[in-house]
Each structure stands twice: as structure tokens, then as C-alpha cells.
Amino acid sequence: MPSTRTLATNLLPLGHGLRLRDVSIGPDQIVATLEATAPRGTCPRCGTWSEAVHSRYQRTIADLPWGGQAVRLHLRVRKFYCRQPACTRRVFTERLPRVVAPYARRTARLESVLSLLAFALGGEPGARIVQRLGMTASPATLLRLVRRVTILEQPAPRVLGVDDWAFRKGHRYGTILVDLEHHRIVDVLPARSAEPVVAWLEAHPGVEVVSRDRAPAYAEAARKGAPQAVQVADRWHVIQNLVEALERCLLRFRPALKAAAGIGDSLVGPLPSPSEADLVPWQRRAEAASQQKHASKVERYQQMRTLRDAGFTVLDIAQLVGATRPTVYRYLALGGPPERQRPRRSKHRVLAPYEPYLVQRWAEGCRNRSRLFREIRLLGYQHSARTVSLFLKRLDNEPQPASTAA
Ligand SMILES: [Zn+2]
Question: In angstroms, what CA-CA distances link 91 with 80, 101, 225?
Fold first, then answer.
């Protein structure tokens, strides 16, 4: 169980040269009176310390709320004389750099919380939440805190990626600059034209390689803004362009490709099934189509794997192979190439045991459908005449091999 003293030390910015004198809890706020304890002050002008107290005064500043209650600190601080003869400052006020900035109305820790809220929520919504939490800050104050944060100026990256970037897709585009060695966004520019990129490159000399898309705008920007840099087309755009070119090219040979991949009697790959000999030609075609489909699935899977190994994201892969993202996820989750699904013949499965018999009778020249139906009923077939009829119709459409014609 912490003592009251420890509790106070945690709740108030004590331990930074401040001692608690008094706490008063009012209806809308808590007021803590704190007193500076340092034996002397240091002149901010010349850095000389002084023990000569000129006067005492009180600063009122806001601190973090307690349980939703606003907290005010009455800071009792001093003014000191500077005794350094050469110093132009005669009197200086006591500084508490770890608690509050000179002239500030809020403690440093309160400002840092407000600044976080401002970054997360912005001005107006931030101000509403701030009030609910027991703090006070106008929307303008919150925005000022955001603007006051200094972003450390980084040296220009050695390898810079330049690409267009959507502030709002389909509406407003800008340019994103990425340090490709450290995988860090360096800047976002308001347009996707050459000018802002030129200005940025001129202000940030030292870029050795510019990686860009293949459109002329960024090429020109790099040539003007960083003439010393080597320009490269990035991998994503090279592959994208290659894919597009291939598609355009292959599209022209579409009829020939279709014929080559034809599902006719030319089968793709070895036929694995031992029962293949039993298949009638239309079943053989279905089998070939299924194999064809499977081959293209395997190829797709391998493309995705290769791209994945090359470091592409799922989104990139989806765009490159022309699949949806869920499909890419499903393929990549597979341990190996997808397995082939057998052609669906479930509808005819009930007939399968009788098919060789029907084929044989058909080859013998029997075309009487109801008779064939009755014959296989005697052999044990218990299903519809329609199934038999469909099968016979397909047989009828097959060209008859001369050798078996009766
Ligand atoms: Zn001084």
C-alpha cells in the first residue's frame, strides 16, 4: 500500500525541485499548491547561479486531471538577482524546465497528452474529448500543439522511391517519397506532377538512385532535380508493364492459343486414371478439360509462390496475376500446388456400372432406348429412364469407330 506521500509524488510533478504545501478540493477543480525547493537559481542569460532572492510570486498552471477533475497548480517560485557583473540580466525568474516551460500555462506532461490527443483526433473532436476528460484546450490550441511538434529533418535518402499516391482514390493524388533502404516514408507531396518532386530533390541533395514508375513525369523530375542520380524503373512497375505487354501480345494469338489448348482429342499430359479406357469420348473430353483447368491452376499457384518469394505483397500479387486477394491468400495457404478435382459426373454415377454394357450394345447396333433401359433394369439398374436416355443421346452424338460398327 503506497503512502500518501508516494501517492502525491506520483500524482503531482513533485521530485523536480517542488514540494507540496497544500491541496484543496473544490466543486469543479482541485488546487495543489507547490513550492520550489532549490537552494539557488541559475541565470538563464549567463549561467551563473545565485542565492540572492529578489522576490516570490505565484504562477497558476493547469496539470493533468484527477479522475476527470481539473487540476490547477499554484507554483510558488522566486526571482533571483544575477550577481555576475558582466551579465546584462539583473533579475531572473526561477526555471523548472522538467515541469513547465517559461510563461507556459500548462505543465509539460499535460501538453504532451493534449498533443497526442490532437494528433489522434484533430482540433474540433479533440477539444470535445479533452473537455470530457477534465482538461481545457480550444480546437485552435490543439492544432497549435500539432504544428509546434518539430519533425527532425532527415538527410536525403541514398535510394529514393517515387510513386503516385492517392489522398483519396479516384479524386486526389499526390506523390509519395520512400527511403528504399530503410523502408521509410520520407515525404508526401501534394501533386503527382514533376514540379513538386523537382523542388524536393533540389532541397534534398544527395540522392544517388531514383526508383520510379515508367511514366515520363517522374523521369523528368529526377533528370531536373537530381541529375547526378541513376534512374531505375522499380521491380513492381517493370513486372506490371511486362504482364500488360504479354497480355496484349497473347491476345492477338488468342484463336491459335485456343486451338493449341483445344479440348478436342488431343489430351494434355498423361492420363492418370486406369479406368480411362472405359471412358466414352465425351467423358474423355470432360477429363481433358478438367486436366487443362488443373494445369492452369498449378501454373497460377507457382506464379503466386514465385512473386511471394520475390517479396511481393498479397495485393501486388493479386494485381499481377489478375486474381482477387482472397484467392491469393487461399493459394498461398496451400502446402503445395492445388490438387485436381475430378470432373463431376455424380449425376451419372448411378449408371456407371452399366455404361460398358450400354456402350457394347450400342456398338452392336441396338438403338432401341426403352429396350436398353429394360435390359439394364434386369441387370439391377434401379434409377430413371431419363439418365439412361441422356447417356444414350451422348453416345448417339459420338462418331462411331469403324472397327466396332456392327
Ligand atoms: Zn546572469
Answer: 6, 18, 52
* 40 Cα–ligand 1 center, Å: 13
Task: With CA atoms as reference, report the closest residue to 230 among 212, 213, 215, 208.
Answer: 208
pTM of the model: 0.46
Angle of helix 325-333 relative to helix 314-321, nearest 10 degrees? Answer: 110
Q: Distance, CA 94 to ligand 1 centroid (Å)?
A: 12
Rounded to the nearest whole angstrom, what is the distance from the C-alpha of residue 381 to the centroid of ligand 1? 113
Virtual torsion, Cα 263, 405, 345, 299, nearest 10 deg = -20
What does the pLDDT look like over 16-61, one tens digit per residue?
788 999 999 988 899 999 999 888 999 999 999 999 999 999 999 9
User: In this structure, which amino acid lies at residue 135?
Assistant: M
- With beta carbons less than 8 A apart as the criterion, state whether 341 and 311 touch: no
With residue 78 as reference, give the H or E element that holds it.
Answer: strand 69-81
Cell numbers representing residue 11 in the block: 500524482
**What DSSP element (H or E) covers 259?**
helix 254-260
Cα–chain center distance at 24: 50
> 105: which residues sit within 8 A by CB, 6+ positions away?
60, 61, 62
78 CA from centroid of ligand 1 (Å): 15
